[in-house]
TrEMBL record:
It comes from the Bacteria. InterPro entries: ADH-like_C (IPR013149), ADH-like_N (IPR013154), ER (IPR020843), GroES-like_sf (IPR011032), NAD(P)-bd_dom_sf (IPR036291), Zn-ADH-like_protein (IPR051397). Residues 11-322 form the Enoyl reductase (ER) domain. PANTHER family: QUINONE OXIDOREDUCTASE-LIKE PROTEIN 2, SHORT-CHAIN DEHYDROGENASE/REDUCTASE. This is NADPH:quinone oxidoreductase. The lineage of its organism: Bacteria, Pseudomonadati, Pseudomonadota, Betaproteobacteria, Burkholderiales. One of its GO terms (molecular function) is oxidoreductase activity. Signal peptide: none annotated.
Length: 326
């Protein structure tokens, strides 16, 4: 195999394309020949030693990928050699071969493109767990999505409509707001040019959003939370904006509101039966055309450094996907 190895997690510049022996699947694992792998914000954090999961160096980053099962380990019963899968390996995706646990793989139909598969499991799994399980989003409620045209944000817009909610999409440019409309958003807010609180007051008749989906954090967290509806639920997804916000605790008291953490990876590990049900539901919604990953562009695997630079520019709309050629 070949892969982008991180010998020292001090940044993207340390990544080196190397040859190594093919990884051998252990009990409950499969080896996947990687056709496509998507770039997620945690893939940046992990090579900077800033993510909660810290693999032993040297390691290959790339948590989400899709390809064909090439070998199976002892005890694997639901997957077989030659099967198309989308997988969460934790790491390993930015190469030609990677290992994944059987339970972290989704068997893909033959007509499910690898590019979509590589951009599917993490973003939609995180968002489904956030909105339906942790956020208890109901039909007729109002959902605010911050960073609405990022990877998880674009999934939240689509799944909010699946839930029957009114979706307000907030993004940083008019172009991104227009894309959010195409994804199904009912209303949009350009928070670079509009006051977020005033816009939310206008769009909700002063009530505020029932559920706030926040993968951004930083300076938008407090004004968004101050706008939340009575008994609202504020979903902490991540901090792509940079700084981790510090919210005054009198705010949830005044609105009887919940601040809800969303750690989907740990949920999938601790509650495998619920996770398996979620996967089946997501595949059905994809088949019905209710959800589809927003792909900004595909890039050859050898251009991983360029992909990281593009992601850091905050210009990505949806997901960046790396593909192995040949």
């Amino acid at each position: 195999m070949h892969g982008w190895f991180c010998p020292n997690p001090t940044g993207v510049d340390t990544l080196e394309w190397r040859e190594a022996p093919d990884p051998q699947p252990g009990p409950g694992q499969v080896r996947v020949r990687v056709h496509a792998a998507s770039l997620n914000f945690p893939d940046l954090l992990i090579v900077e030693n800033k993510y909660q999961f810290k693999p032993e160096p040297p390691f290959v980053p790339g948590s989400e990928f899709a390809g064909v099962v090439e070998a199976v380990g002892e005890g694997v019963t639901t997957l077989k050699v030659g099967q198309r899968v989308a997988a969460l390996g934790g790491h390993g995706g930015f190469g030609t071969h990677a290992l994944a646990m059987e339970g972290k793989c989704v068997a893909l139909p033959d007509d499910f493109p690898f590019v979509d598969g590589a951009a599917f499991v993490m973003t939609y799994g995180t968002t489904q767990h956030a909105l339906f399980d942790r956020g208890r989003l109901q039909a007729g409620e109002t959902l605010l999505v911050l960073g609405a045209v990022g990877g998880v944000g674009s999934a939240a817009v689509q799944l909010g409509k699946v839930a029957g909610a009114k979706v307000i999409a907030a993004a940083s440019t008019d172009e991104k707001c227009a894309i959010a409309k195409q994804l199904g958003a009912d209303e949009t807010i350009n928070y670079s040019t509009e006051d977020l609180r005033e816009a939310l007051k206008r769009l909700t008749g002063g009530k505020g959003p029932d559920v706030i989906y926040d993968p951004v954090g930083d300076k938008f967290a407090e004004p968004a939370f101050r706008s939340i509806a009575w008994r609202g639920r504020y979903l902490v997804i991540g901090f792509a904006g940079g700084d981790i916000p510090k919210l005054p605790l009198n705010l949830p008291l005044l609105k009887s509101a919940d601040i809800v953490g969303v750690f989907w990876g740990e949920y999938a590990r601790r509650e495998p039966e619920a996770y398996a049900k979620d996967k089946a539901e997501l595949l059905q919604w994809y088949k019905e055309g209710k959800i589809k990953p927003l792909i900004d562009q595909t890039m050859p695997m050898h251009k991983l450094h360029d992909a990281y630079a593009y992601m850091a520019s905050r210009g990505v709309k949806g997901k960046l996907v790396l593909v192995n050629e040949g």
